[in-house]
Amino acid sequence: MTKPAIVLLVLVLLVAAVAGLWSGEARVGPLPSGTTLMWTVAGGGGAAIVPMRRRLWRAVAVAAAVASFWVAWWTGGREATAAFNECIASGESLRDALALYKATTGKFPSDLSELPRRPPGHLILRGSMWDYERTTDRYVLRLSDWLVTYHATHAQAFTAHK
């Protein structure tokens, strides 16, 4: 295999891994989505077009790209599940941090990144799992997965909605 082919193959494997992690972090259910399956085909196809002399190496490259995607997808899903559970376990501490911020500065932060400590539920590629909206003197926090949405405000503790 030539040096450009090796570089191209490494690039395909890297893109497959990043796409897998991105897709895994955004899982919308217990089963893979159509987008996930599309990325699998794209990764395998990308590896298949890398110029190689032997069919065996081409098959190994395709299998490596598909495996790279699926391992990263599984890892991203596990990471998202752990982050979501962390958010559920410590959501009220985030509300406490927002109240303390308001008591100190006189207003709620415009973004959760303004808090002294990073909120729970941070993902490698997608960042925070929280959906945070601030108005002049109020805020709304939301956290969702494929099954349930949790909702809290400055005046109301978290409630679950299906």
Summarize the structure.
The protein has 162 residues and is an alpha+beta fold.
What does this protein look like?
The structure is a single chain. By secondary structure, this protein is of the alpha+beta class. The protein has 3 helices and 6 strands. It has helices at 3-25, 34-48, 55-105, and strands at 122-123, 127-128, 131-134, 139-144, 149-153, 159-161. A 4-stranded antiparallel beta sheet has the order 3-4-5-6, with helices on one face. Strands 1-2 form a two-stranded antiparallel ribbon. The protein is elongated. The model has no long low-confidence stretch (mean pLDDT 86).
Question: Which short descriptors sum up this protein?
Answer:
alpha+beta, 162 residues, single chain, four-stranded antiparallel β-sheet, 2 domains, 3 helices, elongated, two-stranded antiparallel sheet
Helix content: 40-55%
Question: Whole-Å distance between the termini?
Answer: 53 Å
Task: Give start-end ranges of low-pLDDT stretches.
Answer: none
Helix/sheet category: alpha+beta
Structural Rg: 21 Å
Treating each run of at least 4 consecutive H or I residues as one helix, how many helices?
3
Mean pLDDT metric: 86
Order of helices and strands: HHHEEEEEE
How is the main sheet built? Answer: 4 strands, antiparallel
Shape: elongated
Number of β-strand runs: 6
Strand order of the largest sheet: 3-4-5-6
Q: How many structural domains are formed by the residues?
A: 2
Strand content of the residues, in percent?
Answer: 5-15%
